[in-house]
Each structure stands twice: as C-alpha cells, then as structure tokens.
Amino acid sequence: MKVAKFGGSSVSNASQIKKVLNIVNEDADRKIVIVSAPGKRFKEDVKTTDLLIRLYEKVMNNLNYTNKKQEIIDRFKDIVEELDLKHDILHTIDETLEHHIKTLKNEPEHLLDALQSCGENFNAQLIAEYNNNQGIPTRYISPKEAGIKVTDLPGNAMILESSYDEIYKLREYKEKLIIPGFFGVSESNYIVAFPRGGSDITGAIVARGVRASQYENFTDVSGIFKANPNIIQDPEMVEEITYREMRELSYAGFGVFHDEALQPLHKDRIPVVIKNTNRPQDRGTYIVHDREINTSNIISGISCDKGFTSINIKKYLMNRQVGFTNKVLSVLVENDISFDHMPSGIDNISIILRSDQIKGKERKVLNEIRKRCDVDELSIEDDLAILMIVGEGMSQVVGTANKITQSLANANINLKMINQGSSEISMMFGISMHDADKAVRTTYQYCFPR
Ligand code: ASP
C-alpha cells in the first residue's frame, strides 16, 4: 500500500485535480491520498491558506471580512463548477467559516488553526466527491476519523504516539481514501495545525501508521535539486538521498520536503519518493535509510540559508572553568531562545542562531551574559549565512574539506566559522550574507563538475 500526498499547486484548480486523480487511479496500490489546500495557480496567485490567514487578520482587527470570506468561497466555487459538483458545499464552507469565527474569536490561536484547516478540509471533500462521480469508490476521511491526534500547540502540533494504532485501521477500507493534510485534532477536540507546509507531515504520519510500502510526495518539480535552481542554472537532480542528508538540507533552506515529515518515516524506514504531478513519468528523488556511495555521489547537495546571528564570546582560560557554557546557555533558556550551532575554541565560543530568535532581545541577552559570565569580550554579529555541504560519502573519502575550502578561497570568501559534527554528514561554514550565492556557485562547480 502506498500513501500519496499532493501539494498545493497539484490541487490548485480543476484541471490539476483531474491530473492528480489520473495518477491516483492508475495504480491500485495508491490507496490513501493526502491533499493540500488549493495552492497557487500562477506565480502571483495567493494560496488558499494565505487567504484564510488574511480572513483571520480581518476578524481579529474587527474589520469587515465579507469580501475576504467571499474570495475563499470563490476559490472553491471555481473548482465546484469546473468539476460539475453540487453547489451545497459552498454553503457549508460559508457556515463553517462563520461557525469558527463565532465560537473561537476569544481564542485567537485556535481560531487561526480552525480557519486554516478549511483549505485542506474542503479540498479533500471536493476531490473525493469528484472521484466518486467518476465511478471510482472513494471516501473522504477527516483527520479526526483517521485518528490523527495531536498536541494542543496551535500552529505547531505534534502527533501523539497513540494515534498510530488508530491510523493502522485505515487499511480496512476498501475504497480509495482522501484525507486533508496539515492538521489534526487535540484531546480537547480543538483543530490544531502543523507548521506551514505541514501536509507533508500528515502524509508521513499516515504512511507510518498504515505501514505503507512507500510514501509518494507529489509536487511541482521532478525531485530534489543538488542546489537551489534560482542560483545554479539547471542543477543536477539527486537520485537517492538518505533521511539524515535530507534533514540537513531541509534545515538549511531546501523547501521541497518538510524536515519534520522525516521523523515518522525514519523510524520505520519507509522510503519516500518526491515526484512531479505534471511529469509523473520522471523517476523522482528517493529518500531512503541507506544509499550506496560511489565516487560520483559523495556529496548529495549544497544549501545556503541566510538570516543568522552569532554571539561571540572570549574568556581567557575558558577551558579551565567548569560550567561556563552552562551559564551562557542558561541566559538563552531564560529568554526562550534556541540556538543551532556552537563552534568553540579553547578561549572562545560562538553561538549561532536564527536572527528571528533573538530579534528585539539582543541588548538584554548580551547584558545578562556579561553579568553572569564575567567575559573578556562579547560581540554580536548578524547578516550571517550558513553554507551546508551535505553528503554521507564525506566520511569515507579524504580531501572533501580541502576541495571546498579551496574553492571558497579562490572566490575570495572569508570563512567566519567552520563546523563538522562527528557523524561527518555535513560541513557547515559561517559566511557573510553577501557571499551566500557566490559560495553556492563556487562550491557547486567543485563538487559537481560538468
Ligand atoms: N496549506 C498549508 C500551507 O500552505 C499546508 C501545506 O500545503 O502543506 O502551508
């Protein structure tokens, strides 16, 4: 049994939905389908989820939201008319939006999630109805019926382990099942959304729950590129990549597959394939537990993400002081800040974090570190980018770091920090944000010579 997930652009209008159902219906193993909300139909279009967020903003600012609500209903109306479906559902959409607004206005975070869920929820119902009309037995299943129980953290839901036994029961249905992505239901019966892009997460959870033989993630590209195609012209496609490599690349900006979706799959080693709804014949990229390493696939990909800040601390004889780092980190904990990397020397330490974590709290955090840790020098640097060279093959060959640092030096890029964990899956370089694109171009040429 396969679980197939289709992203927003794959289900953005009637003709895309027809393409999706052709793909679903041509393979009897594609039993369970997870769908996103209607996404962009063209470059300047607005995703339904974003329209729903705008509706929420209007409501919370006590503004007239009638037009916004109508815009959302109209998105579905186009689909209903082109697929020749019953109009009643448009009335239900209207009623549901009004119901959420009325009952949850005093609980803004839950209201936001309830409104956002409507995008996937109604799209799934329309898609199921259309497939049934085509004579293929198909059933819409809500996340609640599917057993997707989540923590009550609005916009940041996490699956409860107890869900998996419930989800397994989906195997009993004979029909094709269409399930909306992106949200689950909490124990107190609230609709709670995963982070943005979270339909990937639903797909992964369901794939693990039903012990699928494969999780197919359909999107609008034919797989994962080895580097950002906006920077490298026609980059190569990755054929096979491990869960660990994918996690590192998604962390640093590869948006094709949500990094949180890897966790449930990784546990049961369910292979994932990223495929293109518009070119289903393309092979796609496989995300697997282990891959064969050869001389041509040592590195899987290069990514570079901007918007990092570094707190740099110097303290003479730091290495001799017990608990120094602990004191520094306690300041971060108290300010609810998470950090990503911590390269260190004997008398210095840098803490690298995403700039939005510390925004507005910089002065307070520095003062507290200064007070508590008796540092010699303390500075903060933003406008940093993190370049990640990712490849499981690096642990087996000598000389990759040499190649990469040489290419960066040739491009006259100053390396502010270097970090490589003992697993040797990735090498991280802290560079200036201005050098980010140049760094990807130059290292790409060295790692993947044409
Ligand atoms: N519709 C949601 C979003 O735009 C979730 C998804 O499509 O994965 O983020």
Automatic annotation (TrEMBL):
Q: What reaction gets catalysed by this protein?
A: L-aspartate + ATP = 4-phospho-L-aspartate + ADP
Aspartokinase ACT domain ranges (all copies)? 388-443
Q: Which domain of life is it from?
A: Bacteria
- Biological process per Gene Ontology, one example term: threonine biosynthetic process
| Keywords tagged on the record | Amino-acid biosynthesis, ATP-binding, Diaminopimelate biosynthesis, Kinase, Nucleotide-binding, Transferase
- NCBIfam families xref list: asp_kinases, PRK09034.1
Q: Report the protein's function.
A: Catalyzes the phosphorylation of the beta-carboxyl group of aspartic acid with ATP to yield 4-phospho-L-aspartate, which is involved in the branched biosynthetic pathway leading to the biosynthesis of amino acids threonine, isoleucine and methionine.
Which family, according to the similarity comment? Answer: Belongs to the aspartokinase family.
What is the name attached to this protein's record? Aspartokinase
